[in-house]
Amino acid sequence: MIELDRVSVTYGVGHTALRAVQDVSLRIASGEALGLVGESGSGKSTVLRAVAGLIPHAEGRIAIDGRVLPNRRPRESRKIIQMVFQDPYGSLHPNQTVDQTLSAPIAIHRLGDAERRIMAALTEVGLGREHRYRYPHQLSGGQRQRVAIARALILEPRALLLDEPTSALDVSVQAEILNLLTRLRRDHGLTMLMVSHDLAVIAHICDRIGVMRGGRLLEMTTAAAMAEGRVSDPYSQQLLRANQTLDPAAIADVTA
Amino acid sequence: MSATNLRIGAPTGWRGWLLDSAPASRNQARLGRWYRAWLGLRRNGLAMTGLVIVLALVFVALFAPLFANHAAAYTQTLTDRLQPMSWAHPFGTDELGRDIYARVVFGSRTTLTIVALVSLIVVPVGLAMGLPAGYFGGWIDAVLMRLTDIFLAFPRLVLALAFAAALGPGIENAVIAISLTAWPPYARLARAETLTWRHAEFIEAAELQGASHLRILFTQIVPLSMPSVIIRLTLDMAGIILTAAGLGFLGLGAQPPSPEWGAMVSSGRQYLLDQWWVATIPGLAIFVVSLGFNLLGDGLRDLSDSRG
Q1: CA distances for B26 relative to A122, B32, B113, angstroms
Q2: Which candidate, A53, A21, A25, A38, places its Cα nearest to that of A157?
Q3: In this complex, do A82 and B28 lie within 8 Å of one another by their Cβ atoms?
Q4: Structural domain contains residue A110
Q5: What contacts A206, CB < 8 A, 6 or more positions away?
Q6: Is B213 part of the contact surface with chain A (CB cutoff 8 Å)?
Q7: Is residue A252 one of the residues assigned to a domain?
Q8: Rg for chain A (alpha carbons), in Å?
């Protein structure tokens, strides 16, 4: 579904140039959820933004659904892949109601039937009619993130990019959003590429996990292997020790 | 905003409908937003004073014939020249025996016309130059901003003088001359506002949904830039009125016999010591209206700052 071949991103030129991502290659099968973990500055979010098409100067080959996409994305490709941003306070237009935010993509792609689509998307993410005409400042952080997810879903994409979707939320709300994402993935067969610094969050959603550091993909492992501590790269082991809270049973309890 | 809600308690009726935290339609949500802004403005006494003055100006200009006799503003009665204030002439008469009260009332039309026309030119031009500069950056930014710099370098009154001298004096040319020198700050402001929001995540989200640049500019960035542009415009109104009056004073604005406050001050100059009202009354009108716009602008700025 999503295929990256030697993708690199460089910021700046000359000797001040910063190589944020270096030759990252990976494949995500249809319906699979892949997580990228790593510390701040490891390039994980940059990979995600390159896949989304937000980095016009990304090098390498990015193919979605078997088609190689240019950095200037055709409008049609937007319907296949959508993204949920990290900060629910910054990803919604402050002067627009939920209704306006959700109508825009319908208008852009001339989908029609706005009324039904908006209500369906709201129901899907667990919001009701009473939230439809509210402004973002009238919503809680968790509700805002639900609106952001509804906005991503309204085009009925097949793949979802998640940029630390829970890191700006408090713990109880985090669990709700993670459960929502898990359910959406199951119901719609969504392919997911998720980025987080929190191994527990990644392990909750993803089957396979990639460890990134310094712009490189160090190791590709699975959630199960991570949980059992079976990782080969020394840095991955370090990362695992730093996330000692990772206990699959405990997570299952909290988020059940 | 929620503090307002608490203070009122649980409002009912149309206020409850406006302050409803779960509006049932697009219009209710929008009206509710306006109503909350109004509640904020209402608590600011000075801003309300400004608003009352500005509304009074608009009202008087629209319904001038209700307040004064049109003929009295134009008819010259040389036997009645330079009369002091009386019941027949509340503000006295000028050097040609015209009623100053009527001329001040009808002069508000001239002032309002100039202000309205200048705003209609300055805001679109400023946005057209500033939005693309901030949004696209690069060479577009460089070209548009250097152009803005050039216009910013002209002294306002001198350019207006040259312009009026070249095209001939008159209200339309005064408007063009003022607009020509008034738009650059709006271009700068629009660019700065655009730069603030350019890399916001909601702009990226709109891009990801396939929105065109034009759509993003008009539906996402313009609504966010408009408040500061409107505030700036309100604060600039006083300057525009004063420039217009200055041009009138120099004989380059509205032409006699049409009443214009600046020209009235100019003609009263010679009688300032003995017949003080001839220059003072239109001067006071300029002062009050400028003050009104400034107070309103300050109030609007406070309102937008507190919103956060």
Answers
A1: 16, 10, 34
A2: A53
A3: no
A4: yes
A5: A33, A34, A35, A192, A194, A223
A6: no
A7: no
A8: 18
Closest partner CB to A104 (pick from B28, B200, B206): B206
Q: Does residue B199 sit at the A interface (CB-CB below 8 Å)?
A: no
- Contact: B202, A155; criterion CB under 8 Å: no
Where residue A117 falls among pLDDT bands split at 50, 70, 90?
very high
**Strand order from edge to edge, sheet including A191-196:** A81-84, A159-163, A191-196, A33-37, A208-213, A216-222
Cβ B127 vs Cβ B184: under 8 Å? no
Rounded Cα–Cα distance for residues A221 and B118 (Å): 66
* A139 within some domain: yes
Total number of domains constituting chain A: 1
Put simply, the answer to whether B210 touches A137 (Cβ < 8 Å) is no
Give chain B's residues under pLDDT 70: 1-11, 306-308
Predicted local distance difference test score (pLDDT) of residue A250: 53
Residue type, B241: I
Tally the residues of chain B: 308
pLDDT at B1: 44
Instruction: Say which CATH class B45-307 falls into.
Output: mainly alpha
A167 CB-near residues (< 8 Å, 6+ apart): A86, A196, A197, A198, A201
Report chain B's mean pLDDT, rounded to a whole number.
86
Which among A1, A167, A7, A27 has a CA at the least distance from the CA of A84?
A: A167
CB contact under 8 A, A108 and B28: no
Residue A174 lies in a domain: no
3-state secondary structure at position B90: coil
Across the interface, of B28, B202, B220, the residue whose CB is closest to A91 is B202
pTM given for the model: 0.83
The pLDDT of residue B4 is 46
Tokens of A232: 């080969």
